[in-house]
Amino acid sequence: MSKKIKKIGVFTSGGDSPGMNAAIRSVVRTCAFHNIECVGIYRGYEGMIEGDFKPMDARSVKGIINKGGTVLKSARSLEFMTPEGRKKAHQHLLDANIDGLVAIGGDGTFTGAMIFNEEFDFPVMGIPGTIDNDIFGTSHTLGYDTALNTVVEAIDKIRDTASSHNRLFFIEVMGRDAGHIALNVGIGAGAEEILIPEEDLGLERLLESLRRSKQSGKSSSIVIVAEGDKIGKNVFELKDYVEENMIEYDVRVSVLGHMQRGGSPSCFDRVLASRMGVKAVESLLDGKTNLMVGLLSDKIAVTPLDQAVKGKSEINMELLRVSDIMST
Amino acid sequence: MSKKIKKIGVFTSGGDSPGMNAAIRSVVRTCAFHNIECVGIYRGYEGMIEGDFKPMDARSVKGIINKGGTVLKSARSLEFMTPEGRKKAHQHLLDANIDGLVAIGGDGTFTGAMIFNEEFDFPVMGIPGTIDNDIFGTSHTLGYDTALNTVVEAIDKIRDTASSHNRLFFIEVMGRDAGHIALNVGIGAGAEEILIPEEDLGLERLLESLRRSKQSGKSSSIVIVAEGDKIGKNVFELKDYVEENMIEYDVRVSVLGHMQRGGSPSCFDRVLASRMGVKAVESLLDGKTNLMVGLLSDKIAVTPLDQAVKGKSEINMELLRVSDIMST
Amino acid sequence: MSKKIKKIGVFTSGGDSPGMNAAIRSVVRTCAFHNIECVGIYRGYEGMIEGDFKPMDARSVKGIINKGGTVLKSARSLEFMTPEGRKKAHQHLLDANIDGLVAIGGDGTFTGAMIFNEEFDFPVMGIPGTIDNDIFGTSHTLGYDTALNTVVEAIDKIRDTASSHNRLFFIEVMGRDAGHIALNVGIGAGAEEILIPEEDLGLERLLESLRRSKQSGKSSSIVIVAEGDKIGKNVFELKDYVEENMIEYDVRVSVLGHMQRGGSPSCFDRVLASRMGVKAVESLLDGKTNLMVGLLSDKIAVTPLDQAVKGKSEINMELLRVSDIMST
Amino acid sequence: MSKKIKKIGVFTSGGDSPGMNAAIRSVVRTCAFHNIECVGIYRGYEGMIEGDFKPMDARSVKGIINKGGTVLKSARSLEFMTPEGRKKAHQHLLDANIDGLVAIGGDGTFTGAMIFNEEFDFPVMGIPGTIDNDIFGTSHTLGYDTALNTVVEAIDKIRDTASSHNRLFFIEVMGRDAGHIALNVGIGAGAEEILIPEEDLGLERLLESLRRSKQSGKSSSIVIVAEGDKIGKNVFELKDYVEENMIEYDVRVSVLGHMQRGGSPSCFDRVLASRMGVKAVESLLDGKTNLMVGLLSDKIAVTPLDQAVKGKSEINMELLRVSDIMST
């Protein structure tokens, strides 16, 4: 049986996302609420290996709930992939009397946490923080809702200029393996077509669709392209292809880039982060380990970390149909 | 058996909310997709009584998905509460060959629709549009998510000045019968206390909580008050009461007011509106009636209108606990 | 002749405004650039009296340029109005080897600085920080541009609901002594009428104007009321008066309140704060004192503090005429 | 002597910018105020050649003051560069009884207007609408202030992720011929270096500056690059160059692109547009022609169109110095 946890370490790892600070704050305050200590670990596994720790009390996380990024910073650690690296990290945790970990990040972060748990029987809980929403076991990852709003606001601005000039825009949004962002912002921003990794529309059907929309009287159009779409061309090649095969449109490209990862979290992400932090800490206190906290059917739930890593977050096929109907 | 619907009327009624335009657009485009006609009815039941109609094709709803308010306008109609008023409305619908209705609004709107259906056997579907989220049968009403973001952004600004001056702010947010907004923005904005209609904290416990927070080292505090809270004092009386009983704080009041109802809808509300519009129209085409489209466990579902009106949208008690822990 | 300044103290006083942090950052970094020391003084004159100081180097102001409020906090100090209070403050400055001051605030702040200078021959420079823009010697005070954007964005949201319901809204904006905010947001938000302290429109003419606008086909209207307007009624009394004398409108009131003071500063305010901070520090280094840094004809300029305090920042009468024409 | 103007045509041409709609509204309402007619000309000179006109009354411009883009649409017209094209345009104006023009756009727009005036003695007034602020005779072009805010908000988001990961970002902003945007957002967003067309920093000095900032303890840095900078490398080549010559940084690139042109105009741009529209129309009514309306020292002023086109809008060298000091 697990012994009672007395000091929890919290860290962020992998790509940052809005809501990570709110999750850190929640972990710290939940520890304070239960009268146990909390330690911030800087730069993810890298700081764990270096012993880059800082004690955090309830007041230390004041004023961060609405800040993007992560006050604990993030990094990808090659050294943690080696047994020696993990041994150093473990020793630093022991030295600091840390006896439980809350890891905020994505698949890579959780894989590291599972290996660490296996090797040292160290209690770990995961909180899914990534804008891509590509993690099994939660309907929403931290930062996803914020990123959707950031992207639709950017596209609304591009729409202003697109419709003033009767232009066709290809807009690349984040999502290397998953089309969640593309699909939702495509509907939200009223896009003509949405190209996602999960579905190969095909170049010919894209052209057809654009021609049809032109004929139906639309003067400007927006096509959303997920980074990882499978159409076989990047967004600039798509532009060239369409320009060669359709003379009617003035075509432009916009790659939204890293601004999608930042910004003040939405109310949804702040509340979700707060709920997840509470559950992660209380799960450790209940003797649980190797679980990821998620949102399922609007309720906080846990999923074994290995399932979270192995499972696939499926896109909602209903949305593809809604998108088709909306671009009538 | 119901005859095949060929022309749908759509209207907005009651208080407006962000996402209503996106829902109108979705109803119109879904009609176009299924090759049936769509007619916009202005100012809710008022315009129905006056025959204030306008045919809407797919292009007519261009550029409205991101606009707050409702292009069809809204109103409360006393005349529709009379049999004579409803008879006039029915005649106008018959004259215009409208044989199905999509009503976007809240409880009052749905009650009107049910009576109308009962009297004239007229097919009606409801879409819940209100920022208050106080409707049974959907986890989210249209505009609720947008309002949450509008409110936390406003409170973030107030927080800047509160913490610069070590002040205590009472902030009144919308929600006459339901504390959904107050509870979520309270967590999202890091409020010290949240006063909602569903729970009576009591004045003495409020003072205690504020004193405790002051002692714990907090230099400024925010208390969220739902319009309909049960503490027995309005937000200005609360200020006076606290000032009389606690000398340490400079207390201020802010009533956020109608700005909470407007603004460009969030991505979530735009997608939800698009999905709901599709379901409402296709339900009519399937011969259904007297149902409200809602979101339940992230899926589009329908609930009988009478249940939607009679049922109560319960607040999530887990959030009250999270709020308590977060204000540690 | 003045001796060479070696250590500058910087503080914020009076009501906070967006851009104060950017100004603090600029003062600190300009000191670092010139290799002199800089000390932050907390809570304005109050902290000066208590010796609540903190050394600030270039890195200490990282990440604050885009934050509303003031990291040095602000307060109004009764004790500084007494000779004893000022004597204590002076002693603390001497003890800390501070030999020059940059005061960021408004009229009250500058008056305090002048008295302090007179009594102790202590070099002082002022930077105008207030959203009201009511200071002579600068076309723009810090925070004014940000507040204008905050207010028009709020009114845009109210407009959504006003035009959905054919309502008349009275919106109270900040500006106790000056109509700058009201006049600009009135034009920027397309208001029907603007009531400012500098001009008494008269109740009868207000009614006439509203009737005329109703007749001209406007379905909703917005009237901006500056806090300090001279029409003799507050915004709620105005509502009652108009409702009694005009039956056609459903009238509502919104008091925007303290959210107007907060928020991330606009680019304009960040750049202005940066320029003002440089000029304030370099003026002290040049042996100057008792001056306020301002923006005049787009150029950084200085004005004697006593003129800044005594002078009146006139509103631009051209804007009143533009407003009249725009509400045609 | 010029005959009295009775009907004014207004159009937008060239790249769109936020505030164009507010300017159109102002032109239309000022005409209504003076009881003269106003006609909207679609797609700039292209629509003039085709006679694509629409009468506009005061109510027709309702609800557009806060919209980005241009309701009259914009285009670049090759045909207007030919005498035949201009002859057609002139005939359409005569047929419609239009006897004065207000042209909203940039250098190309004004050049077209001057040639047209010369050939047909047709009264024309110009309003400078472009986000680049690269027009002589006005301190601010329409849309410039809005673009500054759009860009700093985007960079604030990128800063979140940059500082979470200790990264160096090269961010390309608009400005093919002028560094106004780059210089101001560079200061406003706290950039380490700003590369603009007006000044060639040199690659070696850029490296030095980045090394120095790294040594001074900065963990992340942002370099703003104007589209038209003269350093001889595009933003992606810059990234490669820096990565080859500095190992300490993880370098990323972001090209902000067309979102910079859109969005709801700032209060400043709305007020400026309103003032400019009044002046443009009243100048025509006063018998003036071939002038551009501008803002000089906060006052509305006019400049001959040929000077506006030939002159150069100089950047403020003070800002370069402020930027250097701020990156201490």
From TrEMBL, chains A, B, C, D:
Residues holding substrate: 130-132, 167, 174-176, 227, 252, 258-261
Active site: 132
Documented activity regulation: Allosterically activated by ADP and other diphosphonucleosides, and allosterically inhibited by phosphoenolpyruvate.
UniProt superkingdom: Bacteria
GO molecular function: 6-phosphofructokinase activity; AMP binding; ATP binding; fructose-6-phosphate binding; identical protein binding; metal ion binding; monosaccharide binding
InterPro entries: ATP_PFK, ATP_PFK_prok-type, PFKA_ATP_prok, Phosphofructokinase_CS, Phosphofructokinase_dom, PKF_sf
UniProt protein name: ATP-dependent 6-phosphofructokinase
Gene: pfkA
